[in-house]
From TrEMBL:
The lineage of its organism: Eukaryota, Metazoa, Spiralia, Lophotrochozoa, Annelida. This is Protein HGH1 homolog. Belongs to the HGH1 family. It comes from the Eukaryota.
């Protein structure tokens, strides 16, 4: 326990100061010693609790972020032998990693390797902090610069912390009995911003993306579904893999369509054209409840329609009837907009020769910006009209 004098000194300091009057030099002199690993566990505990509390307010975050010594001390406590202290340090960093500049600064601190520490926690089957480490790594990789730094590290240390190990940890039930590891899916989604990560996941000699497909309907966690479908959507941006993704070796289309399908009945002709997994669905079949996930599914299918072979395949598999019924059911305006863009492709005529690849069609930047503004305005107008009618 604290010596009475030490406790009085610390508590008095905390409650008699406000953030605007804090002197950095005085904090380093009076408070930083509480975070040192050489201090007593009870001192580290109350010190870390205090700094965790600061991360709950913008001024507190700014104060900590501006002090490299405090940042390094908090990061070093992520591996503290006292579980409660390590947990508070991880939570503090989750709160701090809300903007890109802070993420880049944390990753470039020379004294500590935060990414490696997070990955080691995640891959440790007995770690009590794996889920918090997943959340922290998801925050770090949410921004492209952070995702690039983490992707480079993972690629450089494949034997130790490879992507295949992360995928295995997520896919193996009860990999860590005390943690669910749902946020690994968010990390994968973020990392697939980076081409090297997408290439690894779509390596035709491995079986990585195939292991992710069943999670498009993982009812236990919206976070996991969101992350996996985000990963699949990002992979669909690489047109050179479309033929392989649509082939029997992956068969991605049914996995993208099934969450969008409802209980509607089709005649035998329409059913016969659908992928086998979408034929004669149960009357209790429910659509994906999360609108953002529905939108990502539609965007992924839209990407697969970028080239002529992909469009013809999606049309041949009668994706239109699923989209048609979804259009009757859908209420979310942003999802509806993405859906109508896809339907236009599915029912439209094929582009003229030389323009078959929709991604290769050059649109002047000024027109692109104009169209984007028109799209945003249309969605906003529809939301305004809907709000007025309610």
């Amino acid at each position: 326990l604290f010596h009475a004098a030490e406790k009085r000194k610390f508590v008095t300091y905390i409650f008699n100061r406000n953030m605007s009057s804090i002197d950095k030099e005085q904090v380093e002199k009076e408070l930083l010693p509480f975070l040192e690993k050489t201090s007593r566990p009870d001192l580290r505990c109350i010190g870390m609790e205090y700094f965790l509390g600061l991360t709950g307010a913008p001024e507190g975050k700014l104060f900590i972020i501006s002090n490299n010594q405090i940042l390094c001390a908090i990061i070093e406590l992520v591996t503290d032998t006292q579980s409660a202290i390590a947990k508070d340090a991880l939570f503090a960093l989750v709160n701090l990693t809300q903007d890109e500049n802070t993420v880049v600064k944390l990753l470039r601190l020379e004294k500590v390797d935060l990414t490696m520490t997070c990955l080691e926690y995640i891959l440790d089957k007995t770690s009590p902090h794996a889920d918090i480490a997943c959340s922290l790594l998801a925050n770090i990789t949410r921004f492209e610069k952070g995702a690039q730094i983490v992707a480079d590290l993972i690629m450089a240390k494949q034997d130790v912390i490879g992507l295949d190990k992360l995928v295995s940890a997520m896919c193996l039930k009860d990999y860590n009995p005390s943690n669910r590891l749902h946020y690994i899916a968010a990390v994968l989604s973020n990392l697939t911003q980076i081409p090297s990560t997408r290439q690894f996941i779509m390596d035709k000699d491995r079986c990585v993306i195939q292991r992710l497909l069943p999670f498009t309907e993982f009812t236990e966690s919206t976070i996991r579904r969101h992350g996996i479908i985000g990963t699949l959507r990002n992979c669909c941006f690489d047109t050179e893999y479309h033929e392989w993704l649509l082939s029997e070796k992956v068969d991605i289309l049914p996995r993208l369509l099934l969450p969008l399908a409802g209980p509607e009945e089709f005649d035998d002709e329409d059913n016969g054209k659908l992928p086998e997994d979408l034929q004669y669905l149960e009357p209790t079949k429910e659509r994906e409840p999360d609108p953002e996930i529905r939108k990502m599914l539609i965007e992924a299918i839209n990407q697969l329609c970028a080239t002529k072979p992909g469009r013809l395949y999606v049309k041949e598999k009668n994706a239109y009837v699923i989209m048609r019924e979804l259009h009757k059911w859908e209420k979310d305006k942003s999802v509806m907009f993405a859906l109508e863009n896809l339907v236009d492709i599915l029912i439209g005529d094929e582009p003229e020769k030389g323009m078959e690849n929709l991604k290769e069609i050059h649109i002047p930047e000024d027109l692109k910006q104009k169209f984007d503004k028109m799209d945003d305005a249309l969605i906003q107008d529809e939301k305004t009209i809907e709000a007025k009618t309610q």
